[in-house]
Each structure stands twice: as structure tokens, then as C-alpha cells.
Amino acid sequence: MPESVYLNGEWLAPEAAKVSVFDRGFLFADGIYEVVPVYQGQPFLLEHHLARLERSLAALAIESAGQQFWLELIDDLLARNQSDNALVYIQVTRGAEAKRSHLPQGPLAPTIFASVSAMPVHWDVPAPAQATLLEDIRWLRCDIKSISLLGNIMLKQQAQACGALEPILHRDGLITEGASSNYFAVKNGELYTAPTDHLILPGITRMWVIELARELGIPVHEQAFAVTDLAQLDELFLTSSSREVQPIGQIDDIIIGQGGCGKVTEQLVHAFHASKRQLSAQ
Asked: What is the pLDDT of residue 282?
């Protein structure tokens, strides 16, 4: 548990942090969040995470506290909690008012909360995990990093009940993403991943892996692959800030490739680790 969290201008012990029962985040999930990985005290790809935070706030018409505020908040949070390898969590809601009303009754001061949690850092190639195929039941603005995650939670519970690490979600026969990850397929040495549109959250790790792949000369196609393609894939992996690059060896009863970590996936795992080392050395 963190020693200190930030809430609306105050630094508090976690158990002392309280929000109003009329906060619109509590009542309506009217808010957004962002998660930033930190390696050796250095926030990873911070400018991209903050740009996504600003996009999410703008989509909900919630006023931002500004770039300098976020930078100072993260620095202070890491210093107060003496965090080296961690995940920074920032949540912003529209704020609280005197009564429950679907439409805000006037301008509100946003509620800003931030905390940090320890993150184990690995340098190996993760063992292949199992996924399960599920219909994407979430809303149609997945590009907003909304705190409304009920659909994601229901899907994760289903996946867990199937013994899977993460669901692979699909709409109209096409793969979108996971409940808290993006997916990449590998076929004939080339990468395929869903396009950046309203049906997926454009992951920062996803973006970085695409950049690393192109630097390595691996062709990347941002076009959705189909459910019917899954049995013919050579490799499959997911990406997220907490799991980085995670190979998938099996989807329900479908074995991907030989069920191990493929060469392209392994190459990208090592490239990702190298980029972490480079950042930590700066």
C-alpha cells in the first residue's frame, strides 16, 4: 500500500482519502483514468500517457489541470512513496455537486486522485499464457479511458472462470482487443493488430511495440484480423503497461503455432526490455 496518496490538493494516508457520495465518478462513472509504468524511478513513455489523459478529458469535456501540474504531481508522488518500479494511477472525475442529477447543474471542480503501487519488473521472456474468445459486450467509445469498466470486469471474470489470463474480444467476427490489453497476431513474419478507432483503447505499449517492430524491419498492418484466422496464426501476443509483451500459446482449444513463444514475439520482448534498460540508464 502506498504511504501517501494525492486527493484534491492534499497528501493523505490512503485510509484518510475520502470523496463525496455525490461525486459524479461514484454515482455515474463520470470520469477517466491513466496508468503510467515507472522503471528505476523514471516514468516510461510519459508524454504519450499524458497525451492520452488529455484526449480522454477532452472527450468528456472535463477541464485539465495542465501538463505542468501532471508532471509535478507524478514527480511528487514517486518521491513521497520512494517508488522505483511502480505503476502510477491517476483518476479525474467531473467532480461533486449537492444532488444526484444526470446532467451537471453547473461548472464543477474536477476531483483529482493519484496513487502508486509496486510493479514487479521482469527481464525474461514470459511463459506463454492461455486466452479465451469472448464477444465484446462493452460500449462503443472504447478509445476513452473511462473509469466505467463494468463490461471489462464481467469479461475478465468469464476469462478467469475458463482458466484464461485474458479474454480475446470480437465484434462482428473481427478481433478488437482484450479487457485490459491489445492483441497482435503474427503471420508469415508480419504483425497484424486492430486499427486505432473507437472500438479499442489505443494502448501506449501497443504504440511502442509498433514502433519497435518497424525499427526491426517487421511489417506492421493496423487492420483487424478475424476470428476465423485464429487457428492459422503463427504467433499471438498481448500488450499492456503492466504485462508489457505477453505471448499467448492457446485460445480455448486452439493451439497457436507450437504453443510456445514464437521468434517474432521473442524478438519484440527483447527489444522492449532493451528500451527499458535505455530509459533506466538516462
From this structure: 65
